[in-house]
């Protein structure tokens, strides 16, 4: 739990740093490439290939490609379409995706998750009820792509860890995770990147360095380690703890003139969807007890 709390505090600043200093100024594909490269460099010196079999290395690389490479590609594009608070609020779906993916892996179907997701969509519409346009909904869908990738990466990492020795030195194998992410980030930049929109100030380079070394390098290692040490319910809750933390940072430091009442109403509706989901799960557990 301590891992997840610490990374939540670390990541709370990332949304605003991207939205304020990078979005619309630095090519998003280059930003993703820099973050993945720096994070990979943190763990490459510790890599011990002999600790994992070939299939296990490929599985960890695939998780990195999805959870980091593809997710970041979606994530950075969302800042071109939405404000920082909107991006934060729309990540509220990640716990639902975690539950749905868990159902898929175990051959179940839970209709209540679809009901709570619909309620959260209504909350999303409230946030922009007087200004919903194609860009808004496209941004909403792009964030959902990021959410799905992040959820799939977490669930997959938990499953992989369950099949590996509990004494495994993860810092000696986690480099494969970032190598997998690089296999997505590098081709994406080469194919779609804009070389004329590179960082132009020391502040932008500094933000990229912080995001790559700390938020990505240290952050993803600690978060995924924490995900293997808690139950799925706790992991789902901690996925949403980032939302109020990130909003608080954004509103207090960078966006004091935001429409706070409307933002809060939308957030409350989204929060109600999660409360309904958790209430139903608790009721089901009592019925099975």
From TrEMBL:
Transmembrane residue ranges: 29-46, 58-75, 81-100, 112-129, 135-157, 169-191, 203-223, 235-254, 260-281
Recorded topology in the membrane: Multi-pass membrane protein
Main location: membrane
Keywords recorded for this protein, A-Z: Cell membrane, Membrane, Repeat, Transmembrane, Transmembrane helix, Transport
Origin: domain of life: Bacteria
Boundaries of every EamA domain copy: 3-127, 138-276
Any one GO CC term of the record: plasma membrane
Compartment annotation: Cell membrane
Protein name: Carboxylate/amino acid/amine transporter
Protein species of origin: Vreelandella songnenensis
